[in-house]
Design a protein that fits this description.
Number of helices: 4
Radius of gyration: 16 Å
Helix content: 25-40%
Structural class: alpha+beta
Order of helices and strands: EHHEEEHEH
Number of strands: 5
Shape: globular
Largest sheet: 5 strands, mixed
Strand order of the largest sheet: 1-2-3-4-5
Distance between the termini: 43 Å
Length: 161
């Protein structure tokens, strides 16, 4: 592995980024859920991603970020959403829904920059807190999120039937 850091621009996604968002989403599903959760359809990003990402571009309650090499090639993405207050939880919450950085671009602080941008957006949008979910067996992701200010709050237990 090279000592050279890869340059990448973290920015809001645009219509031209949909193909790159789908590619990153597909890679995330294959690498993460595909190895940890047999109940997840790893083809979902290819089948439903284009429409889902396109609908999120103009939605003020959704954030779609890309990490772009500077030439338009997407090497990472982050999606987030805002949950409005409810009677049970009377505060607005920002959820980091998905994040992926291509393996060759990891360790270049791209993920940290995307998380910082997500947290800024969440705060500016009036969220009282931010949350993210990671598979319990994905220790590397959990360490990454902890380094970026997240702490465990609850645990989901599942039984196969």
């Amino acid at each position: 592995m090279s000592d050279r850091q890869h340059e990448a621009i973290v920015r809001r996604a645009e219509q031209a980024d949909i193909e790159g968002l789908v590619a990153c989403g597909s890679a995330l599903f294959a690498e993460d859920a595909g190895t940890r959760d047999p109940g997840v359809d790893i083809n979902w990003p290819r089948e439903h991603g284009p429409q889902r990402f396109a609908s999120g571009l103009a939605d003020p309650n959704r954030l779609l970020l890309v990490a772009d090499r500077g030439d338009g090639e997407v090497v990472g993405h982050l999606t987030g959403t805002l949950l409005e207050p409810s009677a049970m939880r009377p505060v607005k919450v920002a959820t980091l829904v998905s994040m992926y950085v291509r393996p060759a671009y990891r360790r270049d602080r791209i993920g940290g920059r995307m998380v910082a941008e997500f947290r800024s957006w969440a705060k500016e949008s009036g969220a009282a807190s931010a949350q993210v979910t990671a598979y319990a067996s994905n220790a590397e992701a959990i360490r990454f999120y902890e380094r970026n200010g997240f702490a465990s709050q609850s645990v989901t237990l599942e039984a196969t039937l």
